[in-house]
């Protein structure tokens, strides 16, 4: 497992370097389901790079990835879950606040996860048998703080429409931060800059944080408190286990 984890850390940084090197070129932007659901040629090229490297190193392993319909259930064998550019709108408009994400599962059990904040060059990696680090800084388990000394992160539409009481919860805190990407947001939770994160996302958006979060005392659940299905887009929360019951008093 150590060898695969080391391979993954090298690979995700290589993908980040590739993205940075190609960012200055003219991007080909396509709409997927609607005008704000975008994909670029660089999303696809970065994913192809990741898959090619994985298949060369581990030809018997399987892949679930965001682009081009690459799907394989996490319960079936050795599965790499990839998001080549999480936060594509941020990538297109801001050229920052986006991440590359990799998660590795064996027969449905998460072994390690990685979230790479590309432009800030910060790699969050670990989970399973591995401690979680942000580059060389070890992250520690959640340390309790009252709501009125915390910020939360949320999907902007879910907050605006008070879906499941997210806005009600936010009124107990110091406010809401919207970063526009699951990876960046959940890395802020794990590093203690946010108490929790609420969004409507796909398995490749949460698979890495699911593994790392468990190591640090966080749980990734649907808004009704169930384990996500790793098959479809769902409304989820990434919250400290210690604060779960208090949060669920508002998240209905």
Automatic annotation (TrEMBL):
GO terms for biological process: inositol metabolic process; signal transduction. The keyword Chloroplast does not apply. Keywords: Hydrolase, Magnesium, Metal-binding. InterPro entries: Inositol_monophosphatase-like. GO terms for molecular function: inositol monophosphate 1-phosphatase activity; metal ion binding. Mg(2+) binds at residues 66, 83, 85-86, 205. Its cofactor is Mg(2+). PANTHER family: INOSITOL MONOPHOSPHATASE, INOSITOL-1-MONOPHOSPHATASE-RELATED. This is Inositol monophosphatase family protein. It comes from Streptococcus chenjunshii.
